[in-house]
Amino acid sequence: MIVSFVFTMDPIHENLSQTWVFYKAISFALKNHGAVIAQEHYFNGWDKQKKLFPQFFREDMCEMFEYDVPDNSAVQAIEKISIPKEIEERYILKYGNPSDAYMATFTQDWPELEEFLCLKLNELIEKSNQKIEVITSLTYLKFLDNISHKLNIPILYYEWGPFRYPIYRNTAYIDINGRYKDVASLYNLFKNDPDTRDLPVIKRKDLLALLLKKDYIKYRDLDENNFDTYDKYEIGIAAGYNSLTETSSHTHLNMLDLYYLSSQVFDTDEIAVRYHPGDPLHAKMKVKNELEGGLVEFILSCKRVAAISSNVEVEAMMYGKTVYEIGKFKYKGFVNNNIIKLEDKQVNDEILNFIVFIILVPFELLNSAEYLRFRITNPSWRELYLYHMQYYFKCLDIPFSEDPAYDFSKEIVQYINIQKYKNKLEIAEAKIKSVQEEIQTVNELLDRTRYENEKQKSQIEEQREEIDNIKSRYDQLIHSKSMKLVKPLQNIMWKTKQIKALFKSKD
Fold first, then answer.
1. What is the pLDDT confidence band of residue 15, given thresholds at 50, 70 and 90?
2. Is the pLDDT of residue 407 over 70?
3. 126 - beta bridge partners?
4. Of 345, 375, 406, which closes a domain?
5. pLDDT above 70 (res 19)
6. Same domain? 220 vs 349
C-alpha cells in the first residue's frame, strides 16, 4: 500500500495551501487502493477550499496537477487517517503562535503527533493486512522523518520542479533521503561512479527541446540574434515569496539582501527585478526596473540571475545564464555565491544532464505506482539516468540509443523541424478552416438573401395581382348601370358644395 501524506501549518491560507495535493492524493488512492493521511480540515472543509482556491476546481488546473476533484463519496471510499485539530492547537500553544509552530515542523520533533501517527499507521496495517510500501509527502517534515525511522517505512519527498505548465512539460523533484539538500555533492558521487562514465550527454539546447511544449519550441533558439532585449541588464533579481516558507526555517535572507548586494556592484539602471506572481503578500520594493511578463523573457534580458532558494535558478542555467545563490538552495554548489566578487562561473552540459535525468522527474510519474515502487528499490545512478532519458524520448517519439556514437542532436533537431512543420501545418489548416467558415457564412448569407429576394418577388406578384383585381373591379363598377344612375346625383352634390363654399366666403 502507498500512503499519501498531506500536511501544512502555513497560516497564510488557513492551513489549506496543499488543497491540490489533497485532491491529487485522493485521486491516487482511488486508482491504486492507497490511503491518505491529512489534517481533519482537509476532509471536512470543502466549502472553505472552494472559497479560498476556486482555481483548483477549474478543468485546466485539474489537468495541470493531474487529479480529479473529489467529493464526500470519494473520501468515504478510501482508507484515511484524519489528524485532530486539538493536536495542532497544543503544538501552537507550545511555540506561542502559528508562524513559529509552522517553522518548527521543518526542524523540530513533535512527540505527540509522532505517537498518534505511529499508532494509526499500525492500525491501518493490521486492518488492511497490507504492508505500507512508502509514504509520499510534498514537504519535508522533521516529525515525519522520525516516523519513517521508527516504523521502517521509506518516505518519498516530492515537490514542484523548475519546468512547468504551460511553457514546459511539468517536472517534479523526488527524493527518498529527505530532499536533495546538496546536489553538487550528489553529482560528485555520480561522476565518480565507474558505471556512469559512458552515459550519453545531450547539449543544453537539446535538453530544452525535450522539456519545452511544442508551442514553445521556439524558445530553444532565443539568443542575442533574435531577442531584442538580450542581456539588457547586468543582473536580474528573481524575487520569491515574502511570506514564511520552508526556506525560511533555514535562512532569513530575502530579496532586500539580494538587491543590496547587487547595488554594491551595479547601478540601479543595470538591475532588474521580477516579483513572484504567486506571492500571497504581493510585497514590492521601489526599484527602477520592475519587469513583468514571462519568466523566459526576464531570464533572457539579464546577463546574470540572482535568487534565494528559487527554481528560477535552474531555468536560468538552461538558457546559459550566470546564476547567483546567496542562500542554502540545493544548487548552491553549482552556481556563484558571492555577488560582490562577480565570480561568473557557469554550469556545463554534464551538470545540466544530471539535473534533468537524475534530480528531476516527469511530473506525471508521481501518479504511477509502478514508478514509485521503482524509486524505493534504490536504483543505481545509471538505471535512474537512462530510465528518465528513455522516457522523455519515448514521449516525444524520438529514436533512442545508448550507443556512444549515436547523434542525439541530429535526432532532436529532426524532431524540432517536424514540430515546426506541424506548427506551420496547423496554422495553415487553421487559416483554411477560417476561410472555409467565412465562405460558409457568405454562402448562408447569400442563401438567405436569395430566399428573401424570392419571398419579396412573390409578395410583389401577389400585390400586383391584387391591384389588377382592384382595377378590374373598379372598371366594372364605373361602367355598371347603377353607376350611370348615380352619376347625375353626384353632379348635383358637387354643385351644392360649391354654392355653400361661395356663401361661406362672403360671410
1. confident
2. yes
3. none
4. 406
5. yes
6. yes
* Residues 253, 146 share a domain: no
pLDDT tens digits for range 392-402: 999 998 888 88
- Type and span of the H or E element at 429: helix 408-478
Rounded to 5 degrees, φ, ψ at 450 are -60, -45
Q: Which of 288, 165, 170 is nearest to 237 (CA)?
A: 288
Are both 316 and 443 inside the same structural domain?
A: no
Residue-wise pLDDT for 189-199, tens only, equals: 999 999 998 89
280 cis-preceded (ω within 30 degrees of 0):
no
Mean pLDDT, to the nearest integer, of 474-479? Answer: 69
84 vs 38: CA distance, rounded Å: 9
> Do 58 and 74 have their domain in common?
yes
- Domain identity same for 470 and 327: no
What pLDDT is stored for residue 490 in this prediction? 63
- Residue 370 placed within a domain: yes
Q: What is the pLDDT of residues 278-314, one digit of tens each?
A: 666 566 777 787 788 889 999 999 999 999 888 899 9
406, 422, 437 - which closes a domain = 406
Amino acid at 305: V
Shared domain for 220 and 124, answered yes or no, is: no
**Number of domains within the chain:** 3
In this predicted model, what pLDDT tens digit does every residue of 84-93 receive, in sequence order? 999 999 999 9
* Predicted pLDDT at 277: 66
Instruction: Name the grid cell of 153.
Output: 517505512
**From CA 176, how far away is CA 157, in angstroms rounded?**
6
Residue 164 lies in a domain: no
Domain around 75: 2-153
Q: What is the DSSP letter of 398?
A: -
Place of cell 501544512: 8
Question: How far is it, in rounded angstroms, from Cα 35 to Cα 5?
Answer: 9
Tell me: do 99 and 230 sit in the same domain.
no
Cell of 99: 508562524
Give the CA count within 13 Å in the CB-facing half-sphere of 437.
6
**Does 256 share its domain with 402?**
yes
The per-type count for the chain, helices as H runs and strands as E runs, is 19, 11
